[in-house]
Design goal:
- This protein has about 100 residues and is mainly β.
- The protein has one helix at about 65-70; strands at about 1-10, 10-15, 20, 25-30, 35-40, 50-55, 75-80.
- The strands form two sheets. It has a four-stranded mixed β-sheet.
């Protein structure tokens, strides 16, 4: 269970059960008029990359515990969807439908 998160030197750090682990550095890209935050980690070994998409009202950090394990064998790309996490939040309606 995560007990603390903080932003330091442009990278997020998580403290889990007394052990501090550095999170991968996040990046941003622009798609149309939206800035999207993403993380791209792991091996580029010819295997298809894994694209992890979070659910509603979530963010990249939901996958912190999986990135190291999945990145040992795969390239892993995770992004904050529009309106979530540190991606842009356009002024439009958000719904489950």
């Amino acid at each position: 269970m995560r007990t603390e998160s903080r932003l330091a030197c442009g990278r997020l750090h998580a403290q889990t059960e007394g052990v501090t682990a550095e999170r991968p550095e996040s990046h941003a890209t622009v798609l149309g008029d939206l800035r999207l935050r993403y993380v791209d980690v792991g091996k580029r070994n010819g295997k298809l990359p894994l694209l992890l998409l979070h659910g509603l009202a979530s963010r990249i950090e939901e996958y912190d515990d999986l990135l190291a394990a999945l990145g040992k064998e795969h390239r892993v790309i995770v992004l904050d969807l529009p309106g979530n996490g540190y991606s842009d939040k356009p002024d439009r309606a958000y719904s489950l439908s």
